[in-house]
Amino acid sequence: MKVTLLTLEYPPYVYGGVGRHVENLSKHLAKYLELEIRTLNVPGSDSFEAKGKLVIRRYKDWSSLTEEQGRFAPVFRGLSLSLAVNKDPIDSDIVHFHTWYMALGGVYAKKLYGVKLVTTVHSLEPRRPWKRDSLGMGYNLSTWAERIGLSECDMVIAVSNYMKNDIVELYNIPANKIKVIHNGIDEKIWKPTEDRSVLRKYGIRMPYALFVGRISRQKGILDLLKAAKLLPKYVNVVLVTGKPDDPRLLSEVKRRIADLGNIIWINKMMSEEELVPLYTLASVFVCPSIYEPFGIVNLEAMSTETPVVATKVGGITEVVSHGRTGLLVEPGNPKELADAISYLISNPEEAKEIGRKGREEVLRRFTWSRVAKLTYEAYKDLIGE
Description:
14 strands; 6-stranded parallel beta sheet; globular; single chain; about 40% helix; Rossmann fold; 15 helices; alpha/beta; 8-stranded mixed beta sheet; about 375 residues
């Protein structure tokens, strides 16, 4: 069996959870089958790589379409890359695309090369109306591309049962076409450590609550900043943030941080080598999202035995068990968020036990080896092997 994965994000171009998902899934899938990844070629990356049964081909988007287009640039990047990845003939049994950026690429492959088409749904455009702030009218096009891609799929993989229900409701995809396969994590990398050098490097004082995510309304960062104001003075909040969705939101975040004295802001994507100790040494990991189909960051915290405070939204409730592996609060409620953070910091023995159970849950249900095996079995069912 041979499978081609289409993805905008793949190392070295990774800015969110999808890139990490594809990177880790591909490593483990390559143990079962021939695997090809077709992705974006960015400066510093090779156009072709071969790693055993894994082949990576990188394609340039039509930068002339994106340079002067402002907020439409992401849409044109996805559209042009969808064409570019089909330039070379595809001889796979299955093409598997990730996100709406590559949806039309998947459809073109199905029509041109007669392959079976699969997608993994990490989020859905109609559930993220705030993206109109960054895409403008391009949001209409991203939603359309997502709809077309899903309608052409022979099988759809949802990262949570919550996501499966949304796919049926929003796009009328038959439920029997959808398989739920949760995200995973590399438990051998994401494990507790005693290395404190990252604290010295960034001037972080314990105890602290940790947030890792994009500067996005989706991620609830403004609610966390409001909650930070309610925390005891000795509790710090460490923000590790990536690229902002919208410059106006970035300005608001900067303004709120300037009014607080307990924020340590690391405004860049960090390596796993630094993130693992940062998670391990945190008293609490905080996921204040207002929309979250799954939330790999919660697995990262649980795998490093750090208790989670998260909102009761989307797929989070399928990952974090209230009172057992974390505490769940209502979204959009900074007071409840602050109370939960304070409770765990004030009760370290209970927090430690919650962290221990979190890693147990990861080892039982959320390893990439398990995700890859379930995905391979789904492929076999699709092509009748």
